[in-house]
Design goal:
Layout (H helix, E strand, L loop, with lengths): L19 H14 L26 H14 L2 H6 L3 H4 L4 H10 L1 E12 L6 E12 L2 E14 L2 E10 L1
Antiparallel strand pairs: 1-2, 2-3, 3-4
Helix pairs in contact: 1-2
Length: about 160
Amino acid sequence: MNAAAKPTGLQVGSTRPLSRAERRAEAARVKAQEAPAAPAAALSPPPQDNDVPPVPAATPEQLMRSRFSAYALGKADYLIATRPEAKRAEENREELAAYCKSVQAVGLKIVGREKGGKDDDTGIVTFHASLQSNGRRTLHIETSTFVRENGRWVYVDDVVKE
């Protein structure tokens, strides 16, 4: 982790120290951005306070990384906003928020990409997410499918390796 990205424990613009949960979320966000195989320019902006994608992700991988950050930061509205419009009503915001609180996102490694270029309408990203819950660390292995909807990439579904 480079010195500029290292969490300091102080909230920007405040003298109030960050809570343990805030420090963990920030560390997970920084770690996700520094994950191997992705230059800094390829990262999608993290979710903003209004939970709306600030800038459309240029690739499915960028959207995947921003969604991982959203899980780490508990941004349920962002996770819902990055689903296909027809699927958003099916999402249960409270369950999603509870899940985000129950799991600590420790690290993310992208292990595969298919399609998802500027001329593609679909893309697939395979990743390994290191998660921790109740003091137990697990490796979540998933292949996610993305489609372009109204010019924006959205997360459609996944296959999780058991």
